[in-house]
Design a protein that fits this description.
Elements lengths: L1 H31 L10 E7 L12 E7 H4 L5 E2 L1 H4 L1 E2 L7 E4 L5 E5 L8 E7 L5 E3 L4 E2 L1 H4 L4 E4 L6 E7 L3 E4 L5 E5 L2 E7 L4 E8 L5 H5 L2 E11 L5 E10 L18 E6 L7 E4 L15 E3 L5 E4 L9 E5 L11 E2 H5 L5 E9 L2 E7 L7 E6 L4 E4 L18 E3 L2 E6 L6 E7 L5 E7 L6 E5 L1
Parallel strand pairs: 3-31
Antiparallel strand pairs: 1-2, 1-32, 2-4, 5-6, 6-7, 7-8, 7-9, 10-11, 11-14, 12-13, 14-15, 16-17, 17-18, 18-19, 20-21, 21-22, 22-23, 24-25, 25-26, 26-27, 28-29, 29-30, 30-31
Length: about 450
């Protein structure tokens, strides 16, 4: 009996230990599962903007160079995109996009003789970028300087948007009526290299808002909703001085943040939605500015609100702003006048933003928790007074890794790789700079 009892007790311990080990292993496996897809052998394309006349203006063109993920995370590896890289077609700073697996760069030439021309580059490593023979020019519809991003639809579609120079309209008695510019929304089939649809229309505000001089100056950063049937397009707002319509007001009482919603893929039926939480613009500048998160809702950053700083706004799956969701970056970081230059959703409610704030022109990096509505400045990065993310465009998200290029204007910097679940920061490859230049992203 005693022996049997011991045997039973021992067996129970073994079973319990096995169950505990299995549970721990299962949890470990669960925790180690990548937040995002992993692309083995993925290239990391580094992009640098060349100075034209003033340090940091980036108007002298863009050069690119591709390295491996292993090199990107190696602090002993150095990259000099200005000596080693090759230019992409663009008279000024290129607006680049990349495929999820990093194998292809997408580009629409910004200004110049080829402004509005879409082409792709096959990324073969180093300075080997094979430009596609197939091209399509969208300038006759969206101008030579279109704003555009790709949709998160498997790298199938890009959407370009434009607002023609707004025109002041008057009533019969010559009194001020409104200011409007003809808007264009155009979709590109990036696989077939052709225009798949485009629409042009006026996008009116309310009669009261227009009578006060408010108007949409620019559209940018379109995002496809989870259902795949609507595009949410960010706006940059301005206000005409109604007493002297030849001028815009430099400061004015801002309306709530606005976006334009259009049907997809038809691009028809533009409708303006307005947030009562945020009052900044929702257009971003040179990169994505809103994302469909894991919960299926869209999260959108605001800019140019000098009073309240940047907010993260929430657009529900009914394509309306959720004014119960309040996420102020000023409040979360304990600063004033925050300004999100660019940001990227990385999965599981986490995002990273590059920002500045009142009293400084220096850029910083923050980790955002969209669910908790909290933010923390990322430590472990070499910050510098000349660090400027104003033209920043490209982040890479691969598995549990988030890649970002950090270089002050005219000074060397590094690629940093951040572990998405833990937030751990690793200092990676050195980025060799030149006077007046700066790195604007990794793709």
């Amino acid at each position: 009996m005693k022996k049997n009892t011991f045997k039973l007790f021992t067996s129970s311990l073994l079973v319990s230990a096995f169950a505990l080990t299995t549970a721990c292993s299962s949890d470990d496996n669960k925790n180690s599962e990548p937040v995002n897809p992993v692309t083995e052998g993925r290239w990391i394309t580094v992009a640098g903007a060349v100075m034209q006349t003033d340090p940091g203006d980036g108007n002298g063109g863009t050069k690119v160079y591709a390295i491996s993920k292993e090199n990107a995370i190696d602090p002993n590896f150095s990259v000099n995109v200005y000596d080693q890289g090759v230019p992409v077609q663009s008279s000024r700073t290129a607006r680049l996009q990349s495929s999820v697996d990093g194998s292809t760069l997408f580009n629409i030439t910004y200004t110049g003789a080829n402004g509005g021309e879409f082409m792709t580059y096959k990324v073969n490593g180093g300075n080997n970028f094979a430009q596609s023979d197939a091209k399509v020019n969208i300038s006759q519809y969206a101008g030579t300087s279109p704003r555009w991003v790709k949709l998160f639809d498997g790298d199938k579609t890009g959407v370009a948007v434009n607002v023609a120079t707004p025109i002041v309209n008057v009533n019969e008695d010559k009194s001020y009526k409104n200011t409007r510019g003809k808007a264009t929304v155009l979709s590109l089939d990036m696989k077939q290299t052709l225009i798949s649809a485009y629409k042009q229309y006026d996008i009116p505000l309310t009669a009261e808002e227009e009578a006060q001089g408010h108007h949409i100056f620019r559209l940018d950063a379109p995002t496809l909703n989870k259902a795949g049937n609507k595009l949410i397009i960010g706006t940059w707002m301005r206000k005409t001085n109604t007493a002297d319509p030849s001028k815009n007001e430099s400061t004015f009482t801002r309306l709530g943040s606005k976006s334009v919603v259009v049907d997809y893929p038809s691009l028809e039926n533009p409708v303006v939605i307005t947030s009562k939480v945020g009052f900044g613009d929702t257009s971003g500048y040179r990169s994505f500015n809103s994302f469909v998160a894991t919960d299926g809702n869209i999260y959108q950053a605001t800019q140019r609100d000098t009073q309240k700083g940047s907010y993260i706004l929430k657009i529900n799956q009914n394509n309306q702003y959720d004014d119960n969701y309040v996420f102020s970056l000023d409040t979360a970081l304990g600063i004033k006048g925050s300004y999100i230059d660019a940001w990227r959703y990385v999965g599981n409610g986490i995002a990273y933003a590059v920002y500045t704030f009142e009293g400084t022109n220096q850029g910083y990096v923050a980790r955002l928790d969209l669910n908790a509505r909290t933010a923390q400045k990322v430590e472990g990065i070499d910050y510098d007074a000349d660090l400027d993310f104003g033209q920043y465009q490209g982040f890479v998200v691969d598995g549990n890794s988030f890649y970002i290029a950090v270089t002050p204007v005219g000074k060397d910097g590094n690629i940093y790789v951040i572990d998405i679940p833990s937030g751990k920061v690793t200092k990676g490859a050195k980025l060799i700079n030149k006077p007046g230049n700066h790195y604007i992203g990794v793709f």
